[in-house]
Amino acid sequence: MAMVIENVTKMVGNACHINDISLQLEPGTFNILLGRTLSGKTTLMRLMAGLDKPTKGRILMNGQDLTGMSVRKRDVAMVYQQFINYPSMTVYKNIASPLRLARASEPDIDRRVREVAEMLHIEKLLDRLPAELSGGQQQRTAIARALVKDAELLLLDEPLVNLDYKLREELRTEMREIFKRRQSIVVYATTEPTEALALGGNTAVLFEGRLEQFGQTVDVYQHPQSTRIAQAFSDPAMNIVAGSVDADSLQLGDARQVPLQSHLSGLNPGNYLFGMRANHLQLERKIATDIGFNTRINLAEISGSETFVHVTHNEDHWTVQKQGIHNYKMEEQVQVYVDPARLYVFDLDGHLVASPEVIPTHLT
Amino acid sequence: MNKWQDNKAWFMVIPVFLVVAVSAIIPLMTVVNYSLQDIFGPDQRVFVGLEWYKDALTDSRLHDALSRQLLFSSLVLLIEIPLGILIAMMMPKKGWSASLSLVLVALPLLIPWNVIGTIWIIFMRPDIGLLGAAINGMGIPFDHTAAPVSAWVTVMMMEVWHWTPLVVLLAYAGLQAIPEAYFQAARIDGASAWATFRYIQLPKMRGVLTIAILLRFMDSFLIYAEPFVLTGGGPGNSTTFLSIYLVKQAVGQFDLGPAAAFSIIYFLIVLLFCWLFYQALLKVGTGDKS
Prior knowledge:
Largest sheet of chain A: 6 strands, mixed
CATH class of the largest domain in chain A: Alpha Beta
Helix content of chain B: over 70%
CATH topology of chain B: MetI-like fold
Strand order of the largest sheet of chain B: 1-2
Order of helices and strands of chain A: EEEHEEEHHHEHEHEEHHEEEEEEEEEEE
Largest sheet of chain B: 2 strands, antiparallel
CATH class of chain B: Mainly Alpha
Strand order of the largest sheet of chain A: 6-7-8-3-9-10
Oligomer: heterodimer
CATH topology of the largest domain in chain A: Rossmann fold
Distance between the termini of chain A: 33 Å
CATH superfamily of the largest domain in chain A: P-loop containing nucleotide triphosphate hydrolases
Order of helices and strands of chain B: HEEHHHHHHHHHHHH
Strand content of chain B: under 5%
Largest interface: A-B, 25 and 20 residues
CATH architecture of chain B: Orthogonal Bundle
Number of domains of chain B: 1
């Protein structure tokens, strides 16, 4: 049995925070809500939890209408962006608190608290107060508190944003393992495409309160149904260039014409928008069929072990993601190349027409 | 030149040093000096050692004033802190009504102490005072100039009316600083309103409440204006708190030596209690480990 969201709309004053969303989530699945800040992720979670009532539509759990039911009566657990624990209780008491409120027996509470604490590697910290823990440990406690309840619905609202990079990776890997073995419906909100990809499961892409696409995470990534989804589910955002196709060749921007090949060969003649992922743009030609563009460098930023080169082609701003650390001069003229086999094709309204064939080794 | 040899730093410290010296250290030392002498006139002084301290410590009127003071301050804390928290929790959280209630609550803090005294004297008068006459009208004898209990009730009401708003403001600020997610988490857990207060709001307000308790304790321990305006410490000695007694001695009888010794003892008592409170409050709410 599943959670069904039926045509749910949430208005706050005149602003529409959630616009007619329908979604079905199955037990034992891991579901990601992906979208920028203010795209409606948190609002949707609050509606799922029962903290807010939808303006229109229904929310069903196992066939039962939950729409008007108060959060206290629902079987929900939630983890927040901030590390939320009861400040005056020890880790043990914090984890035990939902069980105590549900009036579980003491031996049962003890067993479950220790089990969950071990799963999250905080079994040695049970006597500490939240203020005596590091951020990562505090969030582990909060996650443990949510897990211990074994709720039907587990909501995680950007739980890793406030942690540093290393801790985030670590906890993310662990969470994937922990949630695999659960029968709950897990919903995880994030703004980061990389996080969605690392977590797997299903992804729902939200944009301005609308559900843009829902499906297996990898599938959504490989076949984004619109330019908007492609840009949301891509970090840096997908680069877009206008182009045209005639009987047997392809013309992108100012680049010279190239013959149609692979997934592009079936395209009808006409004008299209072409999407190029930042990591598919190259600053040198790799194969003879690569398309080259004349661009000017605006900025090169180094992030970790990668360099992001921001370039301008005519009026379009693109980002080239390059492994390693490189220095570039601003205003320098460079050639940017793309393999036509990697182009995403959208019609002029932004709907997906063709996506590249999947090449597993380059899937990042 | 390393930092140990650079004496220019002293010039930077001098202004602060001078201000502290003139405003605190020199007056304090003068008082210490007075407290060790018997002063008959500007040029007639006799060194008496710790005589005045011995006197003060064995002075039964001072003991009475001290017990009165402790009772008064305890009552003030017992009333103002819970009342302040309660009002803060009932106040609206946002919008124009929040601003309005803040202004209304803060009003008593903006009124000068002598005006407050006058307002309450008139308010409590048994013949024409709104409340005083009403109480008498109900058949309960009430006269703050004659009955010690009436005088106490009046001083207490003045104090609570005047200073609870400060506790409200502090508690309100503390409450506003709690992220909304805590309340959501409590609702999801199914926590009752009491549990939410006990395990989220109260521990999260600990910092501001520590300040509130310290401030209210110190202030009420030094109370002077209210009983002075009301009855000057009477009827009898019933509202003669430590400050009133001190001023009676120093100004009324011009016994500078004993008054100075008394001041030092007074100062040390306040310091001691504040330290005790502070130590106790540091542990409250963190000791829930059992």
